[in-house]
Write a structure and sequence with these properties.
Number of strands: 17
Number of domains: 2
Helix content: 10-25%
Number of helices: 3
CATH class of the largest domain: Mainly Beta
Radius of gyration: 23 Å
Strand content: over 45%
Structural class: mainly beta
CATH architecture of the largest domain: Sandwich
Distance between the termini: 77 Å
Order of helices and strands: HEEEEEEEEEEEEHEEEEEH
Length: 259
């Protein structure tokens, strides 16, 4: 085996890919489009597949330990098997459907701290290492999701943070789910630590999951209680959505004796 062949198998002088996005901004249920630029390395190589996938940074909890890992989702094949000659260049357009339950990373131009979604491009070269290419993607909320967040703000809930947790909720379609965290309004402070909102969107609308972290007392232990609200994509009337959210929160509160 020649030196260049050996280096190609180890990743040096290997064929490389670079994805150029038409726009780095999308929404849940939308599409990411662009062009994959494939460049041949120092030697001819057999390519098994070129693919793109969205990738999110996810928090994993096991017992008392927690860590973050990158999880790919929404994978699509851009090109199948073929041969790339040394120095050859190819441009391959692609379109990737964004899953409806993709995490939101930005609201009204404001980036949610800790949220990270990107487009990972990989070329599978037989017998070689492929580090791939990662391009940041901004995911903005659907109109109904934005309305829910605005309505919570109007009800006195204040944004506290967001994260993506590995696992499933009833109705979730991905191996993780996003939680947007809010501090409670003054009327609930002392009884509630925070409220976490998860959007389980689909082509017909969105299931809004509200999980309330109840504060414990001297003789009682804190506990979580949750409720759900189903909204259509057309439910963007701010006052109507606020009234429905307030009703769900009050029902949860009555169930636990807050109100």
């Amino acid at each position: 085996m020649g030196f260049r062949d050996l280096m190609a198998k180890l990743g040096g002088g290997n064929a490389s890919v670079d994805a150029v996005l038409d726009t780095p901004t999308t929404t849940p249920g939308g599409t990411v489009t662009g062009t994959v630029h494939l460049t041949g390395g120092d030697v001819a190589q057999e390519i098994t597949e070129i693919r793109v996938a969205l990738e999110a940074t996810v928090e994993v909890e096991r017992g008392d330990n927690s860590w973050k890992e990158n999880v790919a989702f929404g994978t699509a094949t851009v090109a199948g098997a073929g041969r790339i000659e040394p120095g050859a260049r190819h441009a391959i357009p692609f379109g990737l459907a964004v899953p409806w339950q993709c995490p939101i990373t930005s609201i009204d131009g404001w980036t949610l701290r800790g949220m990270r979604v990107g487009l990972r491009t990989r070329v599978d070269v037989r017998g070689a290492v492929d580090p791939g290419d990662l391009d940041p993607v901004t995911v903005t909320p659907l109109p109904v999701q934005r309305t829910v967040l605005q309505a919570l703000d109007g009800l006195g809930f204040s944004f506290r943070g967001a994260d993506v947790e590995k696992g499933h909720l009833p109705g979730s379609a991905l191996p993780f789910y996003q939680e947007v965290e809010f501090a409670p309004p003054m009327s609930l402070r002392g009884r509630v630590n925070e409220v976490e909102v998860t959007f389980l969107a689909d082509p017909q609308g969105v299931e809004v999951v509200l999980e309330v972290d109840r504060r414990g007392g001297l003789l009682t232990e804190g506990r979580d209680v949750s409720g759900r609200l189903r909204l259509a994509h057309s439910d963007t009337d701010l006052h109507a959505v606020a009234a429905r959210l307030d009703e769900v929160v009050r029902q949860l509160g009555a169930r636990r004796g807050w109100l």
